[in-house]
Input
Amino acid sequence: MRHPFRSLALGVLGTAVAAGALVPAASAAPPEHSHGHQDTLRRQAPRDLEIGSAAWGQRDLTGYDKHDPTDYQRVLAREFGSITPENDMKWAEIHPEPGVYDFSGADAVMDFARAHHQEVRGHTLLWHSQNPQWVIDASDDWTCQEARDVLEDHVRTVVGRYAGEIYEWDVANEIFQDDWDTGGVRLRTEANPFLKACAEDPVALIGDTFRWAHEVDPKARLFLNDYNAEGVNTKTDAYYALAQELLADGVPLHGFGAQGHLSLMYGFDTSIQANFERFAALGLDVAVTEADVRVPIPDGQDGPTAEQVTLHAERHDAMLEACLAVPSCTSFTVWGFPDANSWVPDVFPGEDWATIFTDDFGPKPAYHAMLASLREATPGVSPRSGR
Ligand code: XIL
Output
C-alpha cells in the first residue's frame, strides 16, 4: 500500500486527535465552503474508476426538481459518478406481485442519474433477502423448472427495461453462506428460494441467470457480490472456485464485488488487495460495492471518539487504496449517506456513524482520506495501468 494514511496522519485528523476529544456531529465545514470546483470524489477519480453511492430512489429521489434540489440530492450529484439503487431494484420493490412490476423507484434513480451524467449499478437479481411474500409462499412447492421460469421472466423484464443504461449488475448476491452458518460455506440452497428449488444443480441456475441477463443487456458487466468477501478467506475461496467453474462453462461472468460492510468491532483483513488480484487474474473486474464502516457507540457516549474517527477513515481509505492498486477495480461504492439515511442503526443496534458524511452533509475525515487517495491516483502518478 502506498503511503498509508499519510494525509490523515499529517492533516485532517491532527486537531481531533490532539484534542483527544469526542468529535461533535458536525465535524467539518459545510460542503459549500470546503470544496473548490474540482474537489469532489467523482472529479478526482481516475477515469477508469467510478466512485458511487447507494441511493434509495423511492425515498430520496422521487419528485426531484432540478431547480430546487434537496441538500441530499445536491451532494449525491456533486460527489458521485455512479448510483446503486439501495432497494428499488430488489424483488420486493420492483416485482411486488406475480406479473406486476413497479418501476417507480428504479426509474427515479435512472432519471436522476441521467440528469447528472452518472452511471448506474444494478442491484440485484438473485438474492435470499427482500423477496416479496408471493415468492416466499410460492417457493414452498416450486419445481426447479417453475423457479427457473419465474426468475427468467424477472431477469429479462428488469434487465431488459434498463438495457444499455446499467454498466454493472450485481446478478447474484450473497449466494454463499458463511463459515459460521450451519453447514458452513456452501451455496444458500435453503435460504434462497430459487437455489432451494434447484438445489440439485444450483450452479446451473446461477449460470443461466447470468446468461439471461447477458442476452438482454450484452453491454452490462455482470457481477457476483457478497459481504465478508473482502479478504482471502474460506468464503472467497468458494467464490474463486465458483468463478472458475462458471467461466469454464462459458458463463458471461464479468466481475466480483466485495460489499465492504466493515465494523470497528472487528479487525481489518489486509488481504483485500491480494483477494482482488486473484479474481483479476481470472480476467474478472472487481469492485467495492457497498462500503461503510460501523462504529460501536455505547449508550451514553455522544458520538465516536477521536480514535474511532481515525479508524473509520483509515478503513474506508484502505478499501479504496486496495481498489486503486488493482487496475481491474472498476467501481468503489459507499452504501449511502449521511448517517441518518444509513441502514446501520436499524440493523446493528449499538453501532452508528458508518457513512462518510455527517447528518448536516459535512464530509467526515473518511471523505477527506478518500479524496486524498484519489488525488494521488491521478493518471501519471498512479500505479494503475491506465487501461
Ligand atoms: C440494505 C438496505 O440498505 C436497507 O435499506 C434494506 O432495508 C436492507 O438492505 N447487503 C446488500 C444490500 O446487498 O442490498 C443491503 O441493503 C445491505 C447488505
Observations:
- The two ends are 20 Å apart (CA to CA).
